[in-house]
Amino acid sequence: MKIRSQVDFWSGIVFLVVGLAFAVGATEYRMGTSARPGPGYFPLGLGVLLALVGLVVLVGALGHEPDEGELIAPPVWRPLLVVVGAVLAAGFLLPRTGMLLTLPLVIVLTALASSEFRLREALGLAAVLTTGSWLLFVVGLKLRIPVMPTVF
Amino acid sequence: MKRLYALAGAVMAVALCAAPGTASAQNRIFVGTVAGSDLDGLARRVAEVLAASDGARWIVENRPGAGGALSFEALKGAPADGATLLMAPSGALTLAPHTRGNLKYSMADVAPVSRVAAFDVAYIVSAKVPATTLKAYFDWVKQDSARAVFATPQFGGIPHMFGIKLGRAVGLPLDNAAYRGGGSQLITDVVGGHVLAASSGVAEWLREHQAGTVRILATSGVKRAPQLPNVPTFQELGYKDLTASIAYLLLAPAPTPKATVDAIAARVNKGLADPKLREALTAQGFVVDGTTAPATVAANLKAEHKLWGDMIKETGFKMPN
Amino acid sequence: MDLFSNLATGFGVALSLQNLAFALGGVFIGTLIGVLPGLGPVPAIAMLLPSIYTLDPTAALIMLAGVYYGAQYGGSTTAILINLPGESSSVVTAIDGYQMARQGRAGPALAVAGLGSFFAGCVGTLVLAGFAPALAGIAFAFGPAEYTALMLVGIVGAVVLASGSVIKAVGMVLLGLLLGQINTDALSGVERFSFGIPELTDGLGFVAVAMGLFGFGEIIGNLNQPPQSRDVFTRDVKNVWPSREDFRQAMPAVLRGTALGSVLGVLPGGGAILASFAAYTLEKRVSSTPERFGKGAIQGVAGPESANNAAAQTSFIPMLTLGIPPNPVMALMIGAMVVMGITPGPKVMTDNPDLFWGLIASMWIGNLMLIVLNLPFVGIWVKLLTLPYRFLFPSIVCFCVIGLYTLSNNNFDIYLAGLFAAIGFAFIKLRCEAGPLLLGMVLGPMLEENLRRTLLVARGDWSVLVTRPISCTLILLAAVMLLAALSPAVRQRRARAFGD
Predict the structure, then answer these.
(1) What is the rounded CA–CA span in Å between residue C243 and residue C233?
(2) So what's the ipTM on this one?
(3) CATH 3.40.190.10 region(s) of chain B?
(4) What is the topology classification, in CATH, of domain B120-219?
């Protein structure tokens, strides 16, 4: 038995693992009875169901020959890591250093994800977006966003 | 291109200079719910009152999450200079510490400023229930144990506790059906007769009561609710210790100097004395206060805290795991 | 006829210059809020409230209604253009709408969404005016058991939504349901799966997850492609306006969506969310070419958008006739009305006829304003998409990050979106669709709450779900839908097994 569909195989694994994880976690909570379900009842049931579905998908992904159309292309790591990193950095910095410092940093960082990155363009974009955001959100819509650093 | 950069740079420079002005000197009131709730609306009124009395800007900052606990944490982290306040329901300070396990705040973290408004807990039944008095209702429930269910807008809140107390006082354990966040589904279910009784704050039910689709059988205040002159209180009906109310309080961080607290209290209470404001808030279902001194509010809170603590111990109520 | 004379009064009120200005202002603000990712109408309305107290009540309510519609439509705009659904009702629009945008057909998608919404709005207003009390009665026939059944229909509908493997869609829905279990249990107060993080005790925020899975995940996916294929929107922009063929295909979808949405909108709490994807499911079922769905079928935009707007109109019914607000925006409006001394309720129609009919007429005008305001913008939006991607995507990320922060003034939502961006990318690679997951996440808590409440009231008797007529019908519907969805997959599998 070989893996016919890589895509389905790994999908099945994900479902199986996550389903089991939730099911095991659910046992921490009271189950109750089927007449009066407790907080753990549904997570357990759903987790088991998901694991079963994962199993079905997994088995269905097995076959004789690997299917060309079902291969997982290796991901390009740069966009993934840069974008996720930039978003997380934004979350960390925004309440600590305020919008005027965080946004330019995050915008330039995000732009790095593209292979067409040019520093001057990114800086220009950062200037425009930061100013625009400040005008729109803080001045115009009067939303409560930290503008200046609170850490120093 | 270069001119565009220069322009952008100039605008940014202006922004950087102007920004600090907009950022600081913000007086704010934290609220632990999303915008639009009763508590939030009241907080905005208070903000208006404060802004009118000292000409400064007062805004409301919503910090929802963890059932209001996040707003308390926001208050704890704020400077104790009278520029940051919190509006919260009394239950968060008097009941929650007994029922919720890992609460990260307590009464010691706050200095009460003013009791802005309150409302009673009401016991409501659907119009489909053939009982017009509390006693008739309980007789009716005794006939069929399937009828011993009451709905509440939240699990473990004051209306819920109140319902439990009521059940014990009558000797009829009542089952609770909690509705997340209360609101429209709770009301519709009671009006539609799917759930036959509810224990909830008076405010939301006034319209339905007047339309006749539900009946408020009793309210929990010491006096009758001003909007419901014909509805008896539980006390009147003979249940001496069935009084409770949900108060919305204005709080300051604990280290705030007493003089500051008293000054703010004076301004808020003065603003709350305005008859038009009182009328508007009363129409919404609140019993406007604004007359209690900070020290009294604090003392009342402590007393209430003990009351609920005793009740929890007595009933053995525990937040289930 | 009474209805027309009432409407005439209403238009007389609504067409005053002042009220028209407020309608336009409200729609403008609302569209702005809707287009900016993350921002919802509630905080903005709450901020406008103090100034509203000083306005004439009719004008104020007209403006609030305008903001509400504007925000709905703005949310659909970003769903179509950049795959960012602003609210749960726009998730469905994003599925085919974004694909249409990728094929250079953003213009027709936006136009059809707008026109379909307008039509639905007109019909919805008429329904509201004529049938308000009767429809209100429907809401009361729905108790916990009926809501449970309705949610089941919705969940099965979420499975049907997927255009790829059905069994994987089932898995994604289950995953979504499980993610929805991360919250404080409504009926027992237990905090589940929160790992001690206070922000998780109220559940995973919809906007954060949607932004991560749909918006950011899509950006990462795009950046994985070589640069030439990224500017796919812009290379091949076809007409900005829908073609005759588009109109012909979309029209029946609009009609069906409107009918569905008008009925579902009346149900407090669950109705409006379901409207859009009940419509999508319906369109997919009645279409002679269901395989086009998920790849840019115009009915997949027209139907849900119309259903959406029709539901938005009829959701005013419980509010106006009974004073029961079906969502936070309405709750604010009721607050405003009460403050102005108007008690919503059955008496509003008789005590304040000017207000009631003026409001109804201005809803129609608000819808008209939306079209007037937004159709010219379609061209501008399409032009905006022609920006080189390396400028476009950092801008999207920037606005999203700010929008996320403003949700609860907390950076936690930003972290959540970042996490789900990675997860979203993984799902794209695994060819698992995010739509069913998101919908499962929204419906799961409602299903569980209502089911347990049903059991509580019925003292543990599960058969209540099939003995009550409405819930029985709905459950049968769900079962039929599920079987219909699974059978092609089963047939396919058997064919493959035999073919081997």
Answers:
(1) 18
(2) 0.91
(3) 120-219
(4) D-Maltodextrin-Binding Protein; domain 2 (3.40.190)
